[in-house]
């Protein structure tokens, strides 16, 4: 297997997909792994994004897991390491952005890196070190009320400083606008002042591309997913169709939806309106015990068996807010969530065993459960269906055949997403 060029460590699963998607669009062939792989890579790629779940766990654990990912990526030959965090810089004074940066810098024996969550395509811009979400500053964007990582200060220099042992500085817009050599000169000046981590302004993709060129020899880059658009060019890679080419996979088509978000409700309704076969799972039945759960799964698979040969089949627990609240009041939010996720995941396994080769999963948590139940550990990233939602391909533990799968979190996708996705993969 050829060595990889770029090794990425993402602090959550959907953030990893977001980064992988940007790299593919910039021309790299990418595999996203779920956790640090134990097996060798299944596909020859330019970049690997290791997805961890380290955003809000204890800082020491986040560092340990990030270092394990680093060592695996180094063993694959990665020439540059990219630590990916949230585009709203989700963290607390204890971390985990700062501690993980410190640990990676130490392990890579590097004395300088950048930090910027800027992603203008997604409305995240950094100006004079202040993070904007759309037209509002971070601390007025709703993020100030986040249950785990409330962001009450929009100054990224101030936010990062208490999290790291290093001195934090700024490469501001006036420098970035001048391009690569000005950015490099500013890095040298900051380094001479003892600064080790620089927040970088970027308000447009052009800024990110100028920045990318100046990062070609930086061992560690830390950022949201935006900076990724400027890195593949450093390896002589330009956007191309081959980057998103997935192995051809035939097979039947199915959708498993456990998301109750507004967009998913619209997608489920639009799919049912086409007259396609759809089966609703009643969560209240799932609390009646193991034998009823087995019965619900068996019923779903009898239904799918009867319809799959004719076209895509939908199995869903998706419910409108009022129905959802009723179920959650009866069962408890956590119990309902777990029972529904586990049931849908087992139905997904059954569908793949029935010959489904193209599977759409709606719901972030639901996706996690399905991917785990299918035993998928590596996802090759393909073409984008809607912004941030690509088709992927990977091996499962339940079938010999490669599976095409797309993992659509809550509010992503247009209302015709399900039909559109199958149309795109044919
Ligand atoms: P999203 O990406 O839209 O947030 P998730 O899959 O992350 O979707 O979360 C949805 C959660 O709601 C899951 O835990 C799922 O099991 C649960 N859930 C889905 N349908 C129902 C339902 N009808 N009643 C109660 N909980 C449900």
Instruction: Report, as a whole number of angstroms, the end-to-end distance.
Output: 29 Å
Q: Which ligands accompany this protein? A: adenosine-5'-diphosphate
Overall number of strands? 18
- Shape descriptor: globular
Count of discrete domains: 2
In words, what does this structure look like?
The mean pLDDT is 95. Helix 11 crosses helix 12. This protein has 426 residues and is an alpha/beta fold. Helix content is 38%, strand content 21%. The protein binds adenosine-5'-diphosphate. Adenosine-5'-diphosphate binds at residues 258-261, 264, 283, 317, 319, 324, 327-328, 336-337, 340-341, 363-366, 409-410.
Any key phrases for this structure?
globular; 2 domains; 426 residues; 38% helix; alpha/beta; binds adenosine-5'-diphosphate; Molybdenum Cofactor Biosythetic Enzyme, Chain A; Rossmann fold; single chain; 14 helices; three-stranded antiparallel beta sheet; 15-stranded mixed beta sheet
How would you summarize this macromolecular structure in one to three sentences?
The chain is of the alpha/beta class. It is built from 14 helices and 18 strands.
């Amino acid at each position: 297997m050829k060595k990889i060029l770029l090794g990425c460590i993402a602090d959550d699963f959907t953030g990893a997909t977001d980064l992988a998607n940007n790299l593919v669009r910039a021309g790299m062939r990418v595999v996203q792994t779920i956790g640090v792989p134990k097996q060798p890579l299944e596909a020859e790629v330019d970049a690997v994004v290791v997805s961890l779940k380290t955003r809000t766990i204890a800082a020491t654990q986040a560092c340990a897991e990030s270092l394990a990912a680093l060592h695996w990526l180094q063993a694959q030959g990665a020439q540059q390491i990219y630590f990916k965090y949230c585009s709203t810089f989700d963290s607390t004074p204890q971390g985990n952005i700062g501690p993980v940066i410190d640990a990676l810098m130490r392990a890579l024996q590097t004395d300088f890196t950048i930090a910027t969550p800027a992603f203008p395509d997604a409305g995240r811009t950094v100006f004079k070190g202040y993070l904007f979400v759309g037209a509002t500053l971070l601390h007025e964007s709703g993020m100030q009320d986040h249950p785990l990582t409330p962001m009450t200060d929009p100054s990224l220099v101030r936010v990062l400083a208490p999290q790291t042992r290093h001195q934090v500085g700024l490469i501001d817009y006036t420098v970035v606008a001048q391009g690569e050599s000005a950015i490099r000169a500013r890095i040298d000046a900051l380094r001479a002042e003892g600064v080790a981590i620089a927040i970088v302004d970027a308000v447009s993709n052009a800024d990110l591309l100028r920045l990318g060129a100046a990062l070609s020899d930086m061992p560690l880059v830390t950022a949201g997913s935006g900076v990724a658009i400027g890195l593949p060019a450093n390896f002589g890679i330009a956007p191309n169709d081959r980057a998103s080419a997935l192995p051809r996979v035939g097979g039947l088509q199915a959708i498993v939806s456990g998301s109750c978000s507004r967009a998913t409700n619209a997608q489920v309704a639009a799919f049912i309106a086409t007259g396609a076969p759809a089966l609703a799972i009643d969560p209240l039945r799932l609390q009646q015990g193991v034998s009823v759960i087995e019965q619900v799964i068996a019923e779903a698979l009898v239904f799918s068996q009867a319809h799959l040969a004719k076209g895509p089949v939908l199995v869903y627990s998706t419910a409108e807010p009022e129905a959802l609240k009723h179920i959650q009041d009866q069962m408890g939010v956590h119990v309902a969530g777990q029972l529904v996720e586990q049931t849908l995941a087992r139905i997904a396994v059954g569908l793949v065993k029935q010959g489904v080769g193209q599977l759409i999963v709606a719901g972030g948590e639901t996706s996690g459960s399905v991917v785990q139940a299918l035993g998928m550990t590596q996802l090759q990233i393909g073409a984008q269906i809607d912004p941030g939602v690509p088709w992927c391909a990977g091996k499962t533990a339940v079938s010999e055949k490669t599976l095409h799968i797309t993992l659509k979190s809550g509010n992503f996708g247009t209302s015709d997403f399900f039909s559109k996705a199958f149309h795109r993969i044919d």
